[in-house]
Design goal:
The complex is a heterodimer of chains A (about 230) and B (about 230). Chain A contains three helices and five strands. Chain A has about 230 residues and is of the alpha+beta class. In chain B, about 65% of the residues lie in helices and about 0% in strands.
Chain lengths: ~230, ~230
């Protein structure tokens, strides 16, 4: 790097320091620009990929043929309330309420947090449950994710289909604990956590079904089910 | 360009065997241990590392005249981090389902010391072509170790091979080597299994090298002692 003329007036070690600092600034600017450019170029595709991934999960708990609105855009948010419900998507057909798909989570899984997506029909029955993200032990507790369940014909999560969302809290439990749900021997922590989370979320959402469908798009839903 | 076949052969021998990042330099253990639970994951991250190393060596060697000696390390890290970020975004945009699996590990390529090690030890002193070749060969050296490690852990741990291949090649299926009911040996998939399996691989690598050295000594030529495996990171 050839130093500009004004640097000649400085002592040698200063000259070195200034050239090095200048070099660092130039490299930082160039590579930041490279990152910003790539970010700009890939943003649309990444957003589309994220939306497609979201839809893939939603499709598993709510058949796409059952509604005709733009589901991902018809969203309200409960913001992780006491029932741990997050975003809620509203499926409609010809303007009529069909089903809700909501996010919830269990924070008491064996490996920490388990993110869930739940489909709830307007008739108050569950359409299905899927695990969006988890850290349960591979080969042991991870059967809560049907992709990891060895029983491909009737995976553990299939039990949720058609269950009434207003089931009392004590029945959202594995059979061993006096609840309604089967489990795999030797791994009960993961299904217990999922059951509690689904029950909690389904109870709350079902109790406020009408208000949630009526809330304006993008609204924040308060603890009492009303739009804030 | 004075790039002979001999160069390519030497570079390949260094990267794939003699100074193999996984078995001889023992650098880059973080991805080796974290991602090698299945063969598909391991090879995917390995190939991403090949790309990161090739491009970072290329850029470092091309810019080496303009990088002052005193600030070379921060500049190398800046270059590597920027290129890995670009790779991360590209993966996210074009291989989204694979990204969901590898997502948290791709940024870790930045911290994989083998990338910085090759930038500093090789790319800073050599031409663009040699440096890119070195990056590719060192990366491929890591890939085959990762592939073997991933395959062994997956086979022992879950009794399958190529699980998750449908994320890379849609429609392809995993192989249930021991049938559907194989209970699996959980330890192999958990982090300690990575250490055990890598330990066995390194032992095998050293045994082969020692055997070769002994044979070479028997042929009255001075023994080419294998580079001692020095552990770092």
């Amino acid at each position: 790097m050839t130093a500009p003329a004004f640097l000649d007036a400085l002592p040698a070690q200063w000259r070195k320091a200034v050239t090095c600092a200048f070099g660092l600034v130039v490299f930082t600017l160039v590579f930041t620009a490279l990152m910003a450019f790539t970010h700009e170029m890939t943003r649309e595709r990444i957003d589309a990929a994220k939306a497609a991934q979201q839809m893939r999960l939603i499709d598993e708990v709510l058949p796409r043929a059952s509604y005709d609105n733009k589901l991902l855009e018809d969203v309200v948010n409960a913001g992780g309330n006491s029932a741990h419900v997050g975003r809620i998507w509203r499926a409609r057909r010809g303007g009529e309420a069909v089903a809700l798909v909501f996010e919830t989570y269990a924070d008491d899984g064996y490996g920490g947090r388990i993110d869930l997506v739940v489909g709830l029909g307007a008739d108050g029955c569950l359409g299905g449950v899927r695990v969006a993200a988890h850290h349960e032990t591979p080969g042991l507790g991870d059967y809560i994710d049907p992709a990891k369940d060895r029983d491909k014909k009737s995976p553990w999560v299939a039990q949720f289909i058609g269950v009434a969302a207003n089931l009392p809290a004590e029945r959202w439990a594995v059979e061993k604990d006096g609840g309604d749900f089967a489990y795999h021997a030797g791994a009960t922590v993961s299904p217990r956590a999922v059951l509690r989370a689904v029950g909690r979320g389904a109870n709350w959402t079902n109790a406020h079904l009408g208000a949630i469908f009526a809330a304006p798009t993008g609204a924040k839903i308060a603890e009492n089910g009303q739009a804030e | 360009m004075a790039m002979s076949f001999q160069h390519v052969k030497e570079s390949a021998r260094d990267g794939l065997w003699r100074h193999n990042p996984g078995l001889a330099q023992i650098l880059g253990l973080c991805p080796i241990l974290a991602i090698s639970t299945s063969m598909v994951n391991a090879v995917s991250l390995g190939l991403a590392t090949v790309l990161a190393m090739a491009v970072s060596n290329l850029v470092v060697s091309a810019l080496r005249r303009w990088i002052a000696y005193e600030i070379r390390i921060p500049v190398f890290i800046l270059i590597i981090a920027a290129l890995v970020t670009v790779l991360d975004l590209a993966f996210n945009a074009y291989f989204h389902s694979l990204y969901l699996v590898l997502g948290i590990f791709i940024p870790l390529i930045t911290t994989n010391c083998i990338v910085l090690a090759r930038a500093e030890a090789f790319a800073a002193k050599n031409g663009v072509f040699e440096s890119t070749l070195d990056g590719v060969m060192m990366g491929l050296g890591l890939v085959w170790v990762l592939a073997l490690l991933g395959a062994l852990r997956e086979l022992i741990g879950s009794g399958t091979l190529f699980a998750g291949i449908d994320m890379v090649i849609p429609g392809a299926h995993e192989i249930n080597v021991f049938g559907d009911d194989h209970p699996g040996f959980l330890l192999a998939i958990l982090p300690p299994g990575a250490f055990f399996t890598l330990g066995v691989l390194i032992a095998g690598f050293n045994a082969i090298n020692a055997h070769r050295a002994a044979r070479a000594a028997g042929h009255a030529t001075p023994p080419a002692t294998p580079a001692p495996a020095t552990a770092a990171h």
